Amino acid sequence: MSGHSKWATIKHKKGAQDKARGKLFAKLIRQVEVAAREGGGDLNSNATLRTMYNKARDASVPVDTIERAIKRGTGELEGVRYEPVTYEGYAAAGVAIIVECLTDNRNRTGADVRSAFSKNGGSMAEPGAVAWQFERKGVVLVDRGADEDELMLAAADAGAEDVADLGDSWQVTCAATSLGEVRDALEAAGHKIASAELTMLPSTTIPLNDESEARKVLRVVDALEDMDDVQNVYANFDIPDAILELVEA
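Below the sequence we write its predicted structure tokens.
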């Protein structure tokens, strides 16, 4: 379990209560729009769109807002055309970072990402320099109230690969292509889903046992995540709970 996942979980809980909620909505709507453009507007036949739709609904994005985004994606409504672009880089301690963006101006976004790295002690890397350290997976977070044995049985039956204890929730990991099926199976079994999304999980992690070092890494991550064009930031650091509590405070 990577420390970045723990940090993301903490921020997810705060997200609905802080000023970043509007920015989160904008990012989710953009993801829905692009998924619809690339695979069509039918939730049943477009697995990526279905995942993004559920992710937006989990964040309480209004249904009519999501539906308008789908129509913009399919061309039924006019809108800005976004394209995906990925950047790679490093933070302190050699921590590898992948930055996924949706942009209508590659030059602007590339310059902004490079600036976020350099101004916060990180550096950009060539394409492919760090991507080999990550693998695309589906991750479902289940509320802690779930019975462990029942959850593991339901997850195994649905084809999940792993169930991990995060302390205040359970993390169910599966193949990226199985995310929708695993989520549906867990809900059908009576488990309350906190979130379900596609992510990039690191094959190995770099432990950050020093508070100062952890803050340096998180400064880069936060600067990148604060950008409008940035949709997801993945990193391979692991911050011990004791250090994470100091940083969070």
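The radius of gyration is 18 Å.
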